[in-house]
Amino acid sequence: MFSPGMHMDTDRLISQDSAENSMVELVQITPKLLAQDQAVKNGVEIPEELLAYTPENYRIGANDALFITVWDHPELTIPGGQQQPSSANARVVRDDGTLFYPFIGNVHVAGKTLEELREIIANRLARYIEQPQVDVNVIEYNSQKIYFSGAFVNSGFQPVNAQRLTLLEAVGQAQIDPETADLSNLQLIRDGVTYRLDYDRLTSTPSRIGDIYLKPGDKLHMGLNDARKILVMGEVPQPGAMPYRTSRMTLSEVLGTVGGPSPISASGREVYVIRGMDNLENEKATVFQLNAKSPSAFILANRFEMEPQDVVFVGAAGVTRWNRFISQLLPTATILYTGARTGDEVGGN
């Protein structure tokens, strides 16, 4: 027989032939476990295809507004007169990718760089003007966009211009909403492929995230934390559901937020983190146990990183044996977690 206040032999618990124990795998939180977990997380790499992309020179597209200068020929450059602003003399690319220019007629410009269009116009004007000096600039970028959704202050889209844009620059311009963002879940959707990036970890540890350039048509989605919670229950002053914001929330931060284990009723040995509860039909849940009476407990709790949908349970002193504890805890945690998530969804609607 076991009770949470006694020493638990992990091998013996796992080997017991009971319905309750077949639902879980008990793991002690130890320095070795934390070192292995940290090594795995530090080894997370950015997909090579994202790092391999290098932006090319800007290519003109439909609805871009061009300002075409032909030196010494103001009748071609500013046909509306000097008093008109540059925008009034802009040449807007039609939806079919063409524009009209005096003397040379319709020109297909979509997909061409500014230098390529400059050469085309100069070569065609040479039939009418001796050695024409032509310059082409984009004064309104309307054809190519980067899209933002999720927990950004400035969601929507941003036009792509001739300047190379990195992922970090784009996120900075869109501005993360710290209250609603799940920083561990930044998604970059490119050419139908979704790349998931742990933005928090990649920006707080050495990484090459600054080498990622965005491509026209890319979509950036910062995950919301409204559906990703950490549920805290048991012998704590303030049980409930906490939003999951970053990949570096630790067990000590969670316990500190809810007031810590109750000094009157909590068992110091019975601090559990239950992981994988939302997939019990297919896999075992993992129950991590922290011996909070150990001198090293604070260090271990401060290094144990939480994951979305984790359940933290602080047991009462002198509770029942392990099998009964598990059979009562898992259904209760499932009900409370589902209720918290449903409440958030109703409130959001």
From TrEMBL:
Which organism does this sequence originate in? Halopseudomonas pertucinogena
Please indicate which superkingdom the organism of origin belongs to.
Bacteria
Q: Does the keyword Transmembrane apply?
A: yes
Q: Which residues form the Polysaccharide export protein N-terminal domain?
A: 54-138
What is the protein named? Capsular polysaccharide biosynthesis protein
Q: Where in the cell is it found?
A: Cell outer membrane
This protein's UniProt keywords: Cell outer membrane, Ion transport, Lipoprotein, Membrane, Palmitate, Polysaccharide transport, Porin, Signal, Sugar transport, Transmembrane, Transmembrane beta strand, Transport
- Residue ranges the record marks as coiled coil: none
**Domain called SLBB: residue spans:** 144-221, 229-314
Its family? Belongs to the BexD/CtrA/VexA family.
| UniProt domain Outer-membrane lipoprotein Wza C-terminal: residue ranges | 317-345
Q: How does it sit in the membrane?
A: Multi-pass membrane protein
